[in-house]
Amino acid sequence: MIICSCNVLSDQDVRSAVDAKRTRSISQVYGCLGCRPKCGHCARAIRRLMDEALGSACASCNGCARSSES
Question: pTM score, two decimals?
Answer without folding.
Answer: 0.72
